[in-house]
UniProtKB/TrEMBL annotation:
PANTHER family (UniProt xref): EPIMERASE-RELATED (PTHR43574)
Occurrences of domain NAD-dependent epimerase/dehydratase (ranges): 93-330
Keywords: Isomerase, Membrane, NAD, Transmembrane, Transmembrane helix
Membrane topology qualifier: Multi-pass membrane protein
Keyword NAD: yes
Species this protein is from: Elaeis guineensis var. tenera
Catalytic activity: UDP-alpha-D-glucuronate = UDP-alpha-D-galacturonate
Primary location: Golgi
Gene: LOC105039562
Entry protein name: UDP-glucuronate 4-epimerase
Subcellular location: Golgi apparatus, Golgi stack membrane
First-tier enzyme category under EC: isomerase
A GO MF label: UDP-glucuronate 4-epimerase activity
One of the record's GO cellular component terms: Golgi cisterna membrane
Length: 432
């Protein structure tokens, strides 16, 4: 009571001072209490924000981890098992573009003779990815593991070389197709130049460095008119961006050979065809259209001259690839430094027997037993060249390369595969 009275009616001036002091004190306490409350709130908010941010980064990291199609102990085990040779002195080969046409055939051939094979493919949608998945299943049934990834992914490549000391790289991953470069030029730079450099960087850094065999193209001869095309002919007049990126690849690989001692073999493939082929190529799309009763467009050159290609059957190409791997010398670098001169080679792999496009159509008509609806039109100026013809004497002498399948026989095998794969022989045409 007394305290209450004193508070309400102070009796002396001194007491007022004291009371004022108390009041200030109380105010200060209240103020301090509210400041510390604010401070605590601030701390709480900071802590909340920090934990939210770290949770977010955890979510990001873990989602990256979980969505990554490569990595982990099980994955490494699969890679090692697939890379293990099953013959003495067998190779361990990294095949890029393994779910592609040539990549699938080369991988199977290597596996069949007892080499270890690991595939790498980005399964892009340049053409029907379900065909690539079917090739992957075929490879898996032969014990070949295909990593889903891009040659532009340097971390993935470093990891692969970390897990397996590959003796060879068969580099077949590329943006293919001559005329598609008009539509999507960037994809050629991405795969055939940037991707190639990323791959070469990984090979340079690998210990041991692998020997590299890779796919160049007959298109590098461009506007060359001297026939048959020899490796020593001019290749500085490409007719398409595709050809230009392949030519650039030859120069880039030379640089890595020169500076880092990588053993390099470039193969100029001449219009490869056969079972499990590429749907974007003429023989494949002609077959599809002929069976579906749709017209095909047959290009002709100036003055209605027929176009011609040195069509080369896939089994012959595979033999050339294996011959190149077998004769490739070891790379000479280590720790990213060259220790001595390394092998650098370029070979034509063709059939050395050009056939005109109208003749190709006639052979298909015979095997399919269906007449094609031909529309003949002048070749548009979109990268095509009028003819190709390989001189293969260098490959014959140094790789033992000797093509044995002519277009008639090769297309017969292709048509047989096509009818079976797309279900024509069993229940009529699939709707494609
Ligand atoms: O050997 C090569 O270097 C190249 O061979 C083929 O390129 P290309 O010879 O143009 O093969 P296709 O696209 O199958 O064309 C073959 C022939 O058929 C002609 N053609 C193509 C498509 C079409 O609708 N009509 C047509 O008459 C082309 O002009 C060409 O003369 C591949 O597609 C390239 O990836 C490869 O690098």
């Amino acid at each position: 009571m007394r305290i209450l009275e004193d508070e309400l009616f102070p009796s002396t001036p001194g007491k007022v001072k004291i009371e004022r002091a108390h009041a200030i004190n109380r105010q200060f306490n209240r103020c301090f209490a509210s400041t510390s409350t604010m401070f605590l709130w601030a701390l709480f908010l900071i802590a909340l924000t920090a934990s939210y941010l770290s949770f977010q980064s955890f979510v990001d990291t873990s989602s990256k981890y979980f969505s990554a199609s490569w990595g982990g102990l099980h994955w490494e085990k699969q890679i090692r098992a697939s890379a293990e040779p099953r013959r003495s002195q067998g190779f361990s080969v990294l095949v890029t573009g393994a779910a592609g046409f040539v990549g699938t055939h080369v991988s199977l051939a290597l596996r069949k003779r007892g080499d270890g094979v690991v595939g790498l493919d980005n399964f892009n949608s340049y053409y029907d990815p379900s065909l690539k998945k079917a090739r992957k299943s075929l490879l898996a049934s032969h014990g070949i593991f295909v990593v889903e990834g891009d040659i532009n992914d340097g971390r993935l490549l470093a990891k692969l070389f970390d897990v397996v000391p590959f003796t060879h790289v068969m580099h077949l991953a590329a943006q293919a197709g001559v005329r598609y470069a008009i539509e999507n030029p960037a994809s050629y730079v991405h795969s055939n130049i940037a991707g190639l450099v990323t791959l070469l960087e990984a090979c340079k850094a690998a210990d041991p460095q692998p020997a590299i065999v890779w796919a160049s193209s007959s298109s590098v001869y461009g506007l060359n008119e001297k026939v048959p095309f020899s490796e020593s002919d001019r290749t500085d007049r490409p007719a398409s961006l595709y050809a230009a990126t392949k030519k650039a690849g030859e120069e880039i690989t030379h640089t890595y050979n020169h500076i880092y001692g990588l053993s390099i073999t470039g193969l100029r493939f001449f219009t490869v065809y056969g079972p499990w082929g590429r749907p974007d190529m003429a023989y494949f799309s002609f077959t599809r259209n002929i069976l579906q009763g749709k017209p095909i467009t047959v290009y002709s050159g100036k003055n209605r001259v027929d176009l011609a290609r040195d069509f080369t059957y896939i089994d012959d190409i595979v033999k050339g690839c294996l011959g190149s791997l077998d004769t490739a010398k070891k790379s000479t670098g280590s720790g990213g430094k060259k220790r001595g001169p390394a092998q650098y080679r370029i070979y034509n792999l063709g059939n050395t027997s050009p056939v005109t496009v109208p003749m190709l159509v006639s052979i298909l008509e015979r095997h399919l037993k269906v007449k094609a609806k031909r529309n003949v039109m002048e070749m548009p100026g979109n990268g095509d060249v009028p003819f190709t013809h390989a001189n293969i004497s260098l490959a014959r002498a140094e790789l033992g390369y000797k093509p044995t399948t002519n277009l008639e026989t090769g297309l017969k095998k292709f048509v047989k595969w096509y009818l079976q794969y797309y279900g024509y022989s069993r229940r009529g045409a699939r709707n494609l």
